Here is the input.
Amino acid sequence: MQPADHPRIADARIGVLIVNLGSPDAPEASVVKRYLKEFLSDRRVVEIPALLWQPILRGIILNTRPAKSAALYASIWDRERGDSPLRVITGDQAGLLQAALPDVTVDFAMRYGNPSIPERLAALKAAGCTRILVMPLYPQYSAATTATVVDKVGAVLKDMRWQPALRVLPPYHDDPLYISALAQDARAEMAALDFTPDVVVASFHGMPERTLHLGDPYHCHAQKTARLLREALGVGEAGFRTAFQSRFGKAEWLKPYLDKTLQSLPGEGIRKVAVIAPGFSADCIETLEEIAIQGRETFFHAGGTHFAYLRCLNAGTAGMQMLSGLAARELAGWRESGH
Here is the structure.
C-alpha cells in the first residue's frame, strides 16, 4: 500500500505511437522555412558535413525554397479541415487504430514539425504507458526515415529517469498484409477508372545513389515491394514500371527517375498510365502535388492521353486492416499480460 503522500502513479498501460515524416503548420513561407530548417538539418537526411552544408542551407536554400514550397503546400492544403493532408490522414489513422485496439492507448507524431515525438511520448508516459510500440509508417527501411525516428525516440528516452519499455515496428516492405492491402486498394481504384492503363508505374521516394553503396537497404526493399505488388496485381513485366521521385540537388539519385519515365512513355506508344506510390502510407505533398499535378502535366505534355494517380492506403479499410494487423502482431505478449 502506498503512503498517503506518495506521488500519484497512473495505472500501467500499453501505448502505440504511429509516426510519419511531417509537415509545416501552415502553407506560409515563414512557417515552411522553420519546418525545412529542422528537416534539412537532420544529419540522417543530408549526409554532408555540417561545416559544408549549413552555410548552403542557411545562406541559400532557406532564403529561396520556402516561398516556392509554401505555394506547393497551398495547392494541396486541406482547407476543409484546416491542416496538411499528411497530418489529417495520420490523425485519422491513429483514431481508427485506437478503435481497433481499445485496450491500448494510440497516438501519433511527426518526425519533423508538430505534433512532435518528444511531446507525444511525454503524453503517453503521463497517461501511464510503461510499454510503447513505435510504428514508423515507412514500409521500406532507410536511414533517412526509419532510423531517424529511432534516433529521436532514443534522444527523448535519454532524458527520462523512468523509461518505458520499447518496441519498434520493423520494415514491412514484403509483408503479406501490406502487399495484399496495396493490391486490394489498387484494384478497386483502377476498376473505377474510365480507361484501362497501358502501364502501372510504382513510384517511390528517391534517395541519393550513394546511400545504396553505403549499405542502405531502401532500394532493395522498394524493388521487392514493386515486384510483389506486380505479381499480386497479375500484371506482366511489360505492363509495370518502377521509378523514384523527389530528387534534390545535383548528385545522382536512385534511378529511373519518375519525371524522366513519364516523359519517355508516350514515345514508347504508352499513352495511358496509372501511378501508385507504395512507399507512402498517407497522401502528402510528394503524392498530391508532385505526382498527381506535376506528373500529370509532364505525361500529357509528352503526348500521354490518360493519367491517374492511385491514392495511398491512407485511412481506408484495406490500409487500416493492415496497420491493425501489424500492430497486433508487434504487441503480442504485452497485451496478454494485461499491462
